[in-house]
Structure formats: C-alpha cells, structure tokens
Amino acid sequence: MMYQLYQAQQDLMAPFRQFARGTGAVLRQFDTGRPETFALRQFTAVLELMGTAAVTHERPPFGFTTVRVGNEDVAVTEEVATATPFGRLLHFRKAVDIPQPKVLVVAPISGHFATLLRGTVQVLLPENDVYITDWINARDVPLSAGRFGLDEFVDHVIAFQEAIGPGGHVLAVCQPAVPVLAAVALMSEDRNPATPHSMTLMAGPIDTRILPTKVNALAQEHPIDWFEKNMIHTVPWRLQGGGRKVYPGVLQLSAFMSMNMNRHVTAHLEQFRNLVGGDSQLADAHRRFYDEYLAVMDLPAEFFLETVKSVFQDHDLAVGRMTHRGRPVRPETIRRTRLLTVEGERDDICAIGQTAAALDLCSNLPHTMKRNHLQIGAGHYGVFSGRRWANEVYPLVREIIAEA
After folding, report:
1. What pLDDT shows up at residue 397?
2. What's the pTM?
3. For residue 47, is pLDDT > 60?
4. How would you classify the pairing of strands 129-135 and 233-234?
5. Which DSSP string corresponds to 330-343?
6. Which of 57, 123, 203, 292 fits as disulfide partner to 350, beta carbons 3.0 to 4.6 Å?
7. Of all residues in the chain, what percent carry a pLDDT higher than 90?
8. Helix, strand, or coil here: 282?
C-alpha cells in the first residue's frame, strides 16, 4: 500500500513540477539583473527549487563523449557488451590502438544507479579499458524474469568477468565487495581462465563486526522478519515490474538524507542564494549533484533481505559460512589474484578494518600480493570519488594493476 500511495503522490505532483520548471524558464528571460527585477529573480529561484527537488527513477547519463589519452582527446562510446533482465555490462569503448588493462567496476545495488560512480570511471578511463555493472531498476524488471538475490549477484559478476575475458581486473565499490570476493574465490577454485588478475575492494562490508557503524547497528537491532515487514513493498501493477517485491530506493534515500538532514537543508538554502546571486557555476554544481542523488532505483526484495541477513547479521563470509548455490565460498583458494583493500579514515558507513578483513580471509595469497590503504581525511564517498580518489587512491589501484 505504501508504494501505491507514494506513486500516486509522484503522479499527482509531476504536472506541478513540470509547470514550475517551465514557468521558471520563461520568467528567467525577463530577468535583467537589475535591482528592479530582484523580486522576479527570487520567485524564479523558488520555482526552480520546487521543480527540481524531486525523486526520479531513471538512470542519468554517464555523459562521457571524449577522454584525454596521452596527448590527444579520443572518442568514448557506450556499448552494452552483454545483458540480463537485471543488469547490463556497459563498456566505455575508446578509439585507441594501444591495449589497456580491462577493468570491471562493480557498482552497488544500494538505491542509486551506477552513475553514482561517474567520478570513479572518469579517473579510470584514460589508462584503462573500463566496463561497469549497469544494474536495472527492480521496479522495471517483469516478474517473469525471476528472482535476484546474492547468488544471482555472484553469477552476474562471474558472467561479466567471463564476457570481458582473460587478463581482466575487478574493482568493487562498497556493498559488492562481499559478492565480488565470493565470485573471485569460486573462479579461483575452478581455475576459470577469466579469473581477474587483480581485485580492489573499496569501503566494503567484509566483516561488519569490526567497529560497527550506525548502519551495522540497525541491522543488528531487528530480526530479519522486521525488515521484511517494514522495508519490503510491492511495485504497483501499472509499472513494468508490477507485483515484484522490492526495497524501494526512496526509503534508502530517506535513510541517507536523515543522517545528514542539516547538510541537505543548508545546500538548498545555498542554492537559492546562488540562483538569486547569479552564481551559475555553483548552481550548476548543485544541480549535477542532486540530479544524481535524487535518482533512485529499487532493490529486489530477496537481494536486500539476503544481504542484511548474510552480510550484516550473520557475517557469513567473515566466519566461513558463506555458500553460493549450496557450495562453500572459500577465499583461501585465491592464490594468484592481487588484492588491494581501501578504507576511509572518516567513513561512517563502512568502518576502518571492515574491508581490510579480506586480507586475512585470503590466507593463501602471498603477503607480497596483498595490501591495505587507509585514506586519511576521506569519508565513505571520498574513497572512490573526488580529489583524494584521483590523486591518492587511484595511483595505488594503477600500481596493483600494473604489478598483476
């Protein structure tokens, strides 16, 4: 019922928001920048905020058209290398003749689209042949496509790595660290030719028993039945995925925003000042951030519940109980894939030590082939986006890829 009410509210407000955006655009043409049009500028600023501060359910574009490789700009083309109903393997093909390392970026299914990692990809693109998991919004996946849980996530990582072929590398951001480590363990045990030569795990919950955060505490405070009763809803039948059980992305967004509500309120007040004051650069930066932040995707119910239960409540991988379709997952079988774990000093979602726990789980991997990096001054997102990612973390990723 909650989802139906939410969707009805979205449908009801859509024409109003469209009217606000259109009216604001028209009125903006009459703004001369002089004192006599100051009130008009304030009104159009209010209209823009009302028209754009809304949740959407479609993936924004990555927007890569060219990238600087060496001393020249080369074209970038997005291609779908392979696809399933739940996800596409997106390839950023570049017009270069020089072979580059093939890197699979595994994005989280955590309420936002893969474009949340646009900054991650942007840094990787010049020196690497980049692929990314472009997950499909669960509310757009028909019931006939079946289920998608942790097993299916691992299946996708293996299939996508095989599509890339031998000699590839994998980089997991946040939540996928667990299924990626599981996938590489299974591939290593099977001596799969497509087993990645290096694996980078960034701010991922390998062992959430270590310095539990508020997110970890929430998972421990309630039994899994509570999450199923309170967090899982049914997609309205008029949508493509009608009838599918999901954890709505808007709930995840609400949880994230509530953790830093003052920051978001302040950001919108600043945007009002930017619009009134004519600071287009800051206003554009605000728009880009919130266009991405407010674009949400629903999680398949089975994936959400299995992740909460296996990763955050039972710690199956950390204690050696994780299985994939009934088969034990054994990280100790990883012997030839170089491993880099990256953590943020100020990460309030995945605490220090939780990702580095992978180093001990890969007990048969030589010490010379694994390392941990603690990024000073970085929060959760600073590990894989922004200045610190580009200048301090990525050089280590590049190094481990080159060593492999």
Report:
1. 98
2. 0.88
3. no
4. unpaired
5. -GGG--SSEEEEEE
6. 203
7. 69
8. helix
In angstroms, the Cα distances linking 336 to 37, 114, 197, 259, 373 are 67, 29, 7, 40, 20
Tokens of 8: 């009805």
Alpha-carbon distance of 343 to 353, in angstroms, equals 8
* DSSP string for residues in 50-74: HHHSS-B-SPPP----EEEETTEEE
pLDDT tens column, 205-260? 999 999 999 889 988 999 999 999 999 999 998 899 999 999 998 777 666 656 56
Q: How many CB atoms lie within 10 A of CB 304?
A: 25
- Helix, strand, coil percentages (3-state) for the chain, rounded to 5, are 50, 20, 30
For residues 97 and 176, the model is more confident at 176
**DSSP secondary structure of 64-110:** --EEEETTEEEEEEEEEEEEETTEEEEEEEE--SS---EEEEE---S
Name the residue type at position 376: I
Residue 90: the pLDDT is 98
Which residues make Cβ contacts (< 8 Å) with residue 184, sequence separation at least 6? 170, 195, 196, 199, 334, 337
Architecture of the domain made up of 66-218+299-403: 3-Layer(aba) Sandwich (3.40)
Instruction: List where CATH 3.40.50.1820 sits in the chain.
Output: 66-218+299-403
Q: What are phi and psi of 379, to 5 degrees?
A: -90, -160
Q: Which of 200, 198, 106 is nearest to 154 (CA)?
A: 106
Distance CA 61, CA 121 (A): 13
Cα dihedral 42, 47, 52, 53 sign:
positive
pLDDT in tens, 364-379: 999 999 999 999 999 9
Cα–Cα distance between 254 and 269 in angstroms, integer? 19
Find the mean pLDDT for residues 51-71: 84
Helix (H) or strand (E) holding 223: none
Strand partners, 324: 327
